[in-house]
Amino acid sequence: MASDEELKSRVENLSGEKRKYERVRNSIRSHSLSHMRSLDDMNNFIDYCEKIIGIVDGEEGYHYISNLSEHLKEDVKTMKKIPRLCS
Questions:
Q1: Does residue 13 contact residue 5 with C-beta atoms inside 8 Å?
Q2: Distance between CA atoms of residues 83 and 46, nearest Å
Q3: Secondary structure of the chain in the HEC alphabet?
């Protein structure tokens, strides 16, 4: 069995590590870098792109930028795969 001094030392080391991780967590939160926020932003951007695709595909006279629509569709497909990879 470990002595009281060894146990005390281990508790102090673990407490120091806990404080370090809490500082990192708080820094991430204070800079709005949380994972869920970025996924929300990504979903909003995907919705925006899909609206643009609808406008480009639906309007007469936009036929000359039809490849823009195809590129946006591919980009949206790629972005929709990202959250699944992060989960």
A1: no
A2: 12
A3: CCCHHHHHHHHHHHHHHHHHHHHHHHHHHHCCCCHHHHHHHHHHHHHHHHHHHHHHHHCCCCHHHHHHHHHHHHHHHHHHHHHHHHC
pLDDT 10s digits, 56-87: 777 655 665 667 777 778 888 888 877 655 54
Neighbour-count burial of 56, counting CB atoms closer than 10 A to its CB (0-12 exposed, 13-18 middle, 19+ buried) = middle
Only one residue has tokens 């708080």, namely 26
Instruction: Give pairs for 71-80: CB < 8 Å, separation 24+.
Output: 75/49, 76/46, 76/49, 76/50, 79/42, 79/45, 79/46, 79/49, 80/46
